[in-house]
Amino acid sequence: MSQACITTTLFDLFKVGPGPSSSHTIGPMKAGHHFAQNCLELPRDVRVRAARFRVRLYGSLSATGTGHGTDAAVVAGLLGNAPEDCPPSLLQTLMDNPHTPHTRPLGDGEVTVSVSDVIHDAVIHDFPYSNTLVIELTDEAGNTLYLQEYYSVGGGFIQWKGWVAPELGEPVHRYSNMTELRAIVKEKGLNIYEIILDNEMAITGASRPAIIHSLNEIIAHMETSVRRGLDAEGALPGPLKVQRKARMLWQQATRLHASPDQFLTRLNAYAFATAEENAAGGVIVTAPTCGSAGVMPALVYALRHELFIGDRAIREAFLAAAAVGFIAKHNASIAGAEVGCQGEIGVASAMAAAFVADARGYRSRVTENAAEVALEHHLGITCDPVQGYVQIPCIERNAMGALKAYNAAVITCGTDPYSQRVSLDAAIAAMAETGREMSCKFKETSLGGLAVSMVAC
Ligand code: SF4
Q1: Residue 427 within any structural domain of the chain
Q2: Which of 23, 50, 194, 276 could make an S-S bridge to 190, C-beta 3.0–4.6 Å?
Q3: How far is the CA of 35 from the CAs of 30, 75, 107, 313, in angstroms?
């Protein structure tokens, strides 16, 4: 085995929460929530002196935090909201009223925080992770009572200084990359979905019915986000005044009777729908991130409603897609701030390609090949959201990721699987290397690429 085996769980990868960014919205909200929970455990003599929360953002959290709603997300977390149950309107309310102080009971008193208390600090820094936030509890005079350094490491995952990976069960099937997963498939005669399910049960201790129930919920959340997006109209929040297009595309598709464009236009509409919901701060599923949350739901919705693929095949294919996400996260990154958009839309497209191939009955090798083709053609794509809003180029990029995923599956399902020269592991290694060499201008800082050229013209 090349390195430590994969222990990421399904519901770490697929998280329900508000958009627009897993690393800039869900992660900071979790950090705020975690910090506030820790404060409840502080000694009483500390709690009675507590008066304020203070937050400093670093790296791309500082550069693009406003557009991503980071300030509001961390405050919402400090006020006791977790991503999975935060009312979507709360973030918008906080953003619309940045100077309004909010209080949270602590000990015998209250702690105050407002969105305008969040400080955007250095973009270039020496912390071990790009997306760092430092949260403090202070007394009335501003003296620090308790401080924690958090890292939003992508996909809504957080760590903190001194963080130790939680004790989990041992996976039944140990693999760290696609080559090892493929070997298990061959040696044990299992499908990818069986391997992922076995490991999920072993790592989390959850029963098979419980996992299937949660998986059905995740898939239902994805479909709901598509339907909500198809129903919505008008401009998205923020200064770019981007108009929603999902509904228009859907209406156009209904007029394209018997045209080959109809399926593609619908696929575009589905991807736009969830990506626009994400941009509006609506509830989505990270797959693997918020910015790329439109790709997988587009294919889930299309396969279910256009190709009439059944629940069981959808579920099993979903687990094959999860395997691709796990491997990419383990061997490279799924954070735009770490490797650019290839880690977000590129990985989402690879997952979706595996999903399509598997759902259409092609197993293991074809599934891997489909994922590889989709990822290969996203290599080097930078993260350059205009003015820090997950709108341009992000929304269209979700549609492109969905179409590339479908095409990758079509290409690989129609060719000899053993003639493919590039492995998924090789494509992931190339993504990691490209990400390492990429200038930080192109890693979710909005300091380069389209973020600059569009403003200039
Ligand atoms: S450009 Fe890609 S990685 Fe960057 S915020 Fe948009 S979707 Fe995410």
Answers
A1: yes
A2: 194
A3: 8, 11, 15, 41
Please report which confidence band the pLDDT of residue 455 belongs to, taking 50, 70 and 90 as the band edges: low
pLDDT at residue 453 in the model? 84
How many distinct structural domains can be found in the chain? Answer: 2
Q: How far apart are the first and last CA of the chain?
A: 51
Asked whether the bond before 105 is cis by omega within 30 degrees of 0, the reply is no
- Give yes or no for a contact between 442 and 343, defined as CB atoms under 8 angstroms apart: no
Q: Give the closest residue (by CA) to ligand 1 atom 8.
A: 291
Say if residue 123 is in the same domain as residue 188: no
Instruction: Tell me, yes or no, whether 5 lies in a domain.
Output: no
How do residues 386-426 score in pLDDT, each as one tens digit?
998 999 999 999 999 999 999 999 999 999 999 999 999 99
Best mutation site among 344, 349, 440, 450 for ligand 1 pocket (most ligand atoms within 8 Å of CB): 344
> What's the rounded mean pLDDT across residues 142-152?
97
Last residue of a domain, one of 134, 160, 186: 160
- Please indicate, yes or no, whether residues 364 and 446 belong to a single structural domain of this protein: yes
37 and 59 housed in the same domain: yes
Residue 110 confidence (pLDDT) above 60:
yes
Q: How many angstroms does the Cα of residue 48 sit away from the middle of ligand 1? A: 42
What is the span of the domain harbouring residue 43? 22-160
Question: Domain holding 128: CATH number?
Answer: 3.30.1330.90
